[in-house]
Amino acid sequence: MMPSSLIYARCLGFLIIEAPDDAARDYISHEIMRCEGNGDQMDALAQFYITHLFRLSLLIILITALRLKTRVSSSRQQLIPLQLITALRNGQ
Q1: pLDDT per residue as tens digits for the range 41-79
Q2: Which distant-in-sequence residues (6+ apart) come within 8 Å of 28 by Cβ?
Q3: Confidence at residue 16, expressed as pLDDT on a 0 to 100 scale
Q4: Non-local CB neighbours of 61 within 8 Å, separated by 6+ positions
Q5: Which of 32, 7, 6, 38 is nearest to 19 (CA)?
Q6: In 76-86, which positions are buried (b, 16+ CB within 10 angstroms) versus exposed (e)?
Q7: Of 36, 14, 34, which is closest to residue 24 (Cα–Cα)?
Q8: What's the 3-state SS for the chain?
């Protein structure tokens, strides 16, 4: 498994764990199961969520911090795994 595949797998796991309710957890789990163990499909699914969900969330956090003219607190940064932040910065 490539290092980026490990990050993608971690992102999908993070989505399941942090989903706001059971319906969201079921939906994400169903999407993962539809990949039928195909690593390329799971990587593509994780890339989709990184592009459309994680980056948007990070952007909202940064915009909010700028509006408040404060830095994002260290406790808030810890909610986003360091590898995920690195992947977002590198456009993976």
Answers
A1: 999 999 998 888 877 777 777 777 776 655 545 555 444
A2: 12, 15, 16, 19
A3: 93
A4: 72, 76
A5: 32
A6: eeeebeeebee
A7: 14
A8: CCHHHHHHHHHHHHHHHHCCCHHHHHHHHHHHHHCCCCHHHHHHHHHHHHHHHHHHHHHHHHHHHHHCCCCCCHHHHCCCCHHHHHHHHHCC
Tell me the two tokens of residue 37: 């163990």
Query: Which tokens is 84 given?
Result: 């995920």
29 residue type, one letter? S
Q: Quote the tokens at residue 43.
A: 């990587």
Give residues with Cβ within 8 angstroms of 78, minimum separation 6.
none
Residue type, 83: Q
